[in-house]
Amino acid sequence: MYDNIQENCAEGFAMQERINGLKQLLQAGQPGIGIWCSLATALTTEVVAGAGADWILIDGEHSPNDLRSIVAQLQAAGAYPTCEPAVRLPSDDANLIKQMMDGGARSLMVPNVRTADQARAIVAAMSYAPQGMRGFSVGHRANAFGRIKNYHATAREQQLLAVQIECETGVANAAEIAAVPGVDVLFVGPGDLSTNMGVMGNPSAPHVQAAIQSVLDAARGQGKAAGILAPQQADAERYLQAGFTMVAVGSDLGLLARGSDDLVARFKAR
């Protein structure tokens, strides 16, 4: 039955999976500029995706998102093929990874990865057997409901995995994590890292900056990309110059909050 479904789809509605432009940029050592999407609505994500950024991050960890709202945002972002929508999961749970990937999330960010074994388990959850354990389904949004020929055999080609380094254990194991096949990016979470290193909200502290530099060195030493969230322009420019390539330079929430604050303040000051 499966063969017949695939045959019919291939004959009538065959499609090619879109190239992951962010993955191409990072593999070439080129910067990919991104914007965080935290407002959990398809409309605001559509606005941000049309701004010309190389990628957006739909946040499932610190935003009021669920599977349905994330899929809706993936659909909205799909109108802008040069902007790759990545999804940050709330955890490394294999069932969540399966659901998000079936829903069309092929670029994933996983928080607080601490060891190479944890990274290997995440890669396995993203991969079909025999390389991994991703559950098999004939037709879902990720393979255009059965219309992408050979999707299951080639799914890993356009996937991207960014693992977040957010604690001292992750920093210590960064080189081993970066060496795991299937890990594409070590992405520093500066807020959590500074908190876990005893200086909450102060990633500029010298010992935190040293840890951030060591993550960058570990990633580059394994031929992998390094990323970071840097909503302040001076920080973003400094990290880009240092060699970080997957750099988020702001968020929809920040843009709305600061923009509305500044607008009201200008009139209140009259």
TrEMBL record:
InterPro entries: Aldolase/citrate-lyase_domain, HpcH-HpaI_aldolase, Pyrv/PenolPyrv_kinase-like_dom, Pyrv_kinase-like_dom_sf
GO annotations of cellular component type: cytoplasm
Known cofactor(s): a divalent metal cation
Domain of life per record: Bacteria
Lyase keyword on record: yes
Pfam families listed in its UniProt record: HpcH_HpaI (PF03328)
Lyase among keywords: yes
Ranges of residues in domain HpcH/HpaI aldolase/citrate lyase: 33-257
Reactions catalysed, as given in the entry: D-glyceraldehyde + pyruvate = 2-dehydro-3-deoxy-L-galactonate
Keywords: Lyase, Metal-binding, Pyruvate
GO molecular function: aldehyde-lyase activity; metal ion binding
Family designation: Belongs to the HpcH/HpaI aldolase family.
Protein name: Hydroxypyruvate/pyruvate aldolase
Organism (species): Gemmobacter lanyuensis
Lineage per the UniProt record: Bacteria, Pseudomonadati, Pseudomonadota, Alphaproteobacteria, Rhodobacterales
